[in-house]
Design goal:
Blueprint lengths: L2 H16 L10 E9 L13 E6 L5 E4 L6 E7 L2 E9 L2 E5 L7 E2 L10 E5 L2 E9 L2 E5 L7 E2 L11 E6 L7 E5 L2 E5 L7 E5 L4 E6 L7 E5 L4 E4 L7 E3 L10 E4 L7 E5 L3 E5 L7 E2 L10 E6 L6 E5 L3 E5 L7 E4 L3 E10 L4
Antiparallel strand pairs: 1-2, 1-28, 2-3, 4-5, 5-6, 6-7, 8-9, 9-10, 10-11, 12-13, 13-14, 14-15, 16-17, 17-18, 18-19, 20-21, 21-22, 22-23, 24-25, 25-26, 26-27
């Protein structure tokens, strides 16, 4: 065989091993998408579409798993046993101990419409739940739940997002309608560390530097903290007259981040937030991006366009391709270290 043909065959074989459908780069992470395929669905009619959790396949597509369960906003996996799932749903906190095959509503009637859920990586039996009227905590793997709201305001404690500091057990930040609140003792006492005119929509800790946190808001733009969430300042360069929905860090490239917005679509930065650019060429007119996510193993950027489809980009938003989940609304992207299925 001629040498150049052998080289081409080797390159083709390598590419085939690295790419699946849609040119999906091989990743060290599994991706779970919380989604509802509800375009044209009328409330009260028979549920005929798939909702709940979708897993990315090795080929790059997405398959539904577990029960058909609408209004799942986030899911947290127990790293000790990936079959143990904790879901934030319209019904409250929902627990599965068999990989989603069966689900149990774990919270009482007065803890519904949960917006976010997270595990404490330093105390894995401890789970935090964001609610429209405050915050609940479980210390026994989701069996029982109690409210921990001392320090939260009587009005203004609607909580959209909650995130545990991975470097210290019991240290948690919560994004509420009146600002960002911090606890150092697993929610027994909260204090406000950032005042906001409207709801804080997302909180994320940098995978590169745990002292760095980012937040998105409904009317105060993108906020950044360099001291583990104690003090905050607003970043310029991103339009902020309308709501921003979430922020995602690129785990493969320090300083690269993306934010989502219904009005502004996808905006990215490649210099730590000093400058931002719109990355909407190739997305549908109107954008209506509910969520962005970035694969921490490959840097692939995902954007969920409301009731349209899931899109991805392998050049950080310069071009976009449909990934699937047509007609869906994306609640969240959850990346976990790769497990065999």
């Amino acid at each position: 065989m001629p040498k150049f043909k052998l080289i081409l065959l080797c390159l083709a074989s390598f590419a085939s091993s690295q790419l699946g459908a849609f040119g999906a780069p091989a990743s060290a992470y599994d991706l779970t998408v919380c989604a509802a395929i509800n375009r044209n669905y009328v409330i009260g009619s028979k549920l005929v579409t798939l909702n709940g959790l979708f897993r990315r396949t090795d080929a790059g597509g997405f398959v539904h798993f577990g029960l058909n369960f609408p209004h799942v906003f986030n899911v947290a996996y127990d790293p000790r046993n990936r079959d143990v799932l904790y879901l934030a749903t319209a019904n409250g906190a929902v627990v599965s101990r068999d990989g989603g095959k069966t689900l149990r509503i774990a919270t009482s009637w007065d803890m519904t419409e949960a917006k976010d859920i997270c595990l404490d990586p330093n105390a894995l039996d401890q789970i935090f739940l964001a609610l429209p009227d405050g915050i609940a905590v479980s210390t026994d793997r989701g069996v029982t739940w109690t409210r921990r709201e001392k320090g939260l305001p009587g009005r203004g404690k609607y909580t959209q997002t909650i995130e545990v500091d991975r470097t210290r057990g019991g240290r948690v930040l919560a994004g509420c309608e009146s600002g960002i609140y911090l606890t150092e003792d697993a929610g027994r006492r909260w204090r406000r560390v950032m005042v906001s005119k409207a709801t804080v929509t997302d909180l994320q800790q940098s995978p590169h530097d745990p002292k760095v946190w980012m937040a998105t808001t409904q009317s105060d733009g993108v906020q950044v903290s360099g001291d583990r969430g104690v003090t905050w300042k607003r970043l310029g360069g991103v339009p902020s007259e309308e709501a921003l929905y979430n922020v995602a860090f690129d785990g493969t490239r320090p300083g690269w981040m993306a934010v989502s917005s219904w009005t502004y679509g996808v905006w990215t930065t490649e210099d730590g937030g000093k400058t931002w650019v719109s990355r909407n060429d190739g997305l549908p007119d109107g954008h209506c991006v509910f969520r962005v996510g970035i694969d921490p193993g490959t840097g692939r950027l995902y954007a969920g366009v409301y009731q349209t489809a899931l899109y991805h980009s392998d050049d950080f938003g310069r071009t976009w391709v449909v990934s699937g989940l047509e007609g869906s609304t994306i609640g969240n992207f959850v990346f976990t270290p790769r497990a065999s299925h």
